[in-house]
Design goal:
The complex is a heterodimer.
Chain A lengths: L6 H23 L5 H29 L3 H4 L6 H8 L6 H6 L8 H6 L6 H20 L4 H7 L8 H5 L8 H5 L1 H5 L1 H6 L22
Helix pairs in contact in A: 1-2
Chain B lengths: L1 H28 L3 H39 L17
The chains are: A mainly alpha, B mainly alpha.
């Protein structure tokens, strides 16, 4: 547990603190319900908490993209540990060392693309939380390694192609890329296979 | 009686709002899956419910005031009646 330093988090904390002070003052003094009390309560029950919720939710949504968040479920601990390992050569760890999105590498590689990609990803994330609470909460990590799997492995190349478009001339100069172009785009050949760029999570069954 | 009920509802609303604020704050200090999901679900529901309760109390108080004004009586809330309402 660390003190948040992000501006939105601090804003949310300040708004929540002022709202809480107003509410505690009301509960302690129990003043008559005159116009001034209503205005104070409008601040304490409405405006300030709504502001705190808005800032907190934005901050929360940002937090859900971070590796720390994904790794907070114990069955994902190995994935997060591998990404944190500076000596690891797994595809996931190599992406984690990217300065631009490394701390969000789970989200960067597993988020759906397109206009509603974020929403679809968040909905999928809720499914993960549900499965964790109902099925995997007490599952030993060794067992989880054997049972957790990608829901739609055929879609993973599309996620790679969010950044690696397969259109770039430098990319197309690689003979293996040219020869497997149609299969790669169609998801028949996985970019993250042992014969290509290696498994994303090699310690895991399927590596995906 | 109605005023007492409204005050009780406000006390419950304040307690709910404080719980919601606590949950929202928890996720900022501990951004793991469980606190974030709880803050965005239970926290939001509690916060919204407390604001709705406040709205209901204000609405009920406003209606009581209007009724009282029509009868020329006291306000439903504990606000001291204005001099004209008591005939002074």
């Amino acid at each position: 547990m660390t003190f948040p330093t992000q501006p939105l988090a601090i804003l949310a904390l300040c708004l929540a603190a002022v709202a809480a002070a107003i509410l505690v003052a009301y509960l302690v003094t129990r003043p008559p319900l005159v116009r001034t009390t209503k205005l104070w309560l409008l601040l304490g029950l409405g405006i300030l908490p709504i502001g705190a919720a808005f800032a907190g939710n934005v901050q929360g949504f940002e937090a859900t993209k971070e590796r720390e968040f994904c790794g907070s479920c114990h069955v994902m601990a190995l994935h997060a540990k591998d990404s944190d390992d500076l000596t690891s050569n797994s595809l996931a760890a190599r992406h984690a060392r990217n300065a631009y999105f490394g701390h969000d590498n789970c989200y960067a590689c597993h988020a759906d693309y397109g206009m509603f990609g974020t929403l679809v990803t968040k909905a999928g994330g809720m499914r993960h939380v549900w499965l964790y609470l109902t099925e995997y909460h007490s599952t030993p990590i060794e067992e989880a390694k054997k049972t957790i799997h990608l829901r739609a492995p055929e879609k993973m190349n599309a996620n790679c192609m969010q950044c690696h478009s397969t259109e770039d001339s430098v990319w197309l100069k690689v003979p293996d890329h040219r020869s497997s172009l149609d299969d790669t785009r169609a998801g028949r050949v996985s970019c993250a296979s042992a014969g290509c760029h290696g498994l994303a999570h090699p310690f895991f069954q399927g590596g995906g | 009686m109605a005023s007492k009920r409204m005050h009780r509802l406000l006390v419950v609303a304040c307690a709910c709002a404080l719980a919601a604020l606590a949950l929202m704050t928890w996720q900022l200090f501990d951004p793991r899956a469980f606190p974030v999901v709880v803050a965005m679900s239970v926290g939001q529901v509690l916060g919204t419910a407390s604001f709705v309760a406040f709205g209901l109390v204000v609405l009920a108080d406003y209606r009581a005031m209007r009724r009282a004004a029509r009868r020329g009586g006291y306000r439903a809330s504990d606000e001291p009646p204005p001099p004209d309402a008591t005939g002074e």
